Amino acid sequence: MSYENLTGRTAVVTGAASGIGEAVAVLLAEQGARVALLARRVQRLDELAAKITAGGGTALGVVADVTDDASVSAAAERIHEAYGAVDLVVNNAGVMLGNPVEAGRLDEWQRMIETNVTGVLRVVRAFTGDLVATAAEGRTADLVNISSVAAHLAFPNYAVYGATKAAITHLSQCLRTEFGPRDVRVTNIEPGFVESELRLHTDNDEISAQVDGMVEAMGTLSAAELADVVAYAASRPRHVNLRQIMAMPTRQA
Ligand code: NDP
């Protein structure tokens, strides 16, 4: 598949060390975008950057922790030095930790809120100036937020994760009112089950097994299939904003 409007773009993909972010980075680079890869695991980023470069693409691995202000600011500075202004931001880094609320796992709640909500805001803050300036020059500028169907659907034991994703869906809608009038698109993507490392981080085996059971029954999208959705949205003509997309396996209700 080929997409219009991606060649020559400069993208930042957070959470590029695995899963959806990795697949998005690979696809954007294949389509001729320069891609800054952000995550915490340096080895994964180095391997991915080498793979993209070997395939003829352009990529820069930048170790960054979206829960840390200084880390995100330093990453933005490094990207600006290397590539100049960014015109496509994919806010994808996230964690999903499942436990009953009565377990009182404040540590997990804080980690999810810091990563999935405040982390997204830190990245928005770092690159808003770039997006607004790009659009003012008449070029395409995109903010893509990876939310989740969990923003709408209720999954037992994932209440706080769902709440963080509901926050992102609402944030995206509100940001359109600020960015849209300045020709910066905001696209909120809500995936259903996608094959990735996301399910591996819950430390409660019983709850992990419940999710595994649902995945077995409903199947998953591949990360590459979700990347196709991101690339499709970012490759529309600049006056067309697919503002809200739910993408899930056909068998997932
Ligand atoms: P993965 O766990 O494979 O990817 C998550 C990525 O986020 C990793 O690259 C990880 O890299 C990075 N990350 C985690 N914490 C931080 C941090 N503090 N700073 C920077 N990077 C971080 O899962 P997915 O690919 O599935 O997840 C991507 C997004 O998709 C998430 O926002 C998730 O909520 C969302 N989503 C996924 C669904 C699914 O079924 N897979 C369904 C709906 C939404 P590192 O550890 O190296 O930092």
Walkthrough of the structure:
This protein is α/β, with parallel strands linked by helices and about 250 residues long. It has one domain: Rossmann fold. It has helices spanning about 20-30, 40-55, 70-85, 105-135, 160-180, 205-220, 225-235, and strands at about 10-15, 35-40, 60-65, 90, 140-145, 185-190, 245. A 7-stranded parallel β-sheet has the order 3-2-1-4-5-6-7, with helices on both faces. Bound molecules: NADPH dihydro-nicotinamide-adenine-dinucleotide phosphate. NADPH dihydro-nicotinamide-adenine-dinucleotide phosphate (NDP) binds near residues 67 and 96. NADPH dihydro-nicotinamide-adenine-dinucleotide phosphate (NDP) binds near residues 21, 66 and 197.
Q: What is the secondary structure topology, with strand pairs?
A:
Elements: E1 10-14, H1 19-30, E2 34-39, H2 42-54, E3 58-63, H3 69-83, E4 88-91, H4 106-136, E5 141-146, H5 159-179, E6 184-191, H6 205-218, H7 223-234, E7 244-247
Parallel strand pairs: 1-2, 1-4, 2-3, 4-5, 5-6, 6-7
Helix pairs in contact: 1-7, 3-4, 4-5
According to CATH, the homologous superfamily is NAD(P)-binding Rossmann-like Domain
The ligands found in this model are: NADPH dihydro-nicotinamide-adenine-dinucleotide phosphate
CATH hierarchy, class:
Alpha Beta
As for the CATH topology, it is Rossmann fold
Characterize the biggest β-sheet.
7 strands, parallel
Distance between the termini: 28 Å
Order of helices and strands: EHEHEHEHEHEHHE
- The name of the CATH architecture is 3-Layer(aba) Sandwich
Secondary-structure content class = alpha/beta
Low-confidence stretches: none
Beta percentage is: 15-25%
Q: What's the number of helices?
A: 7
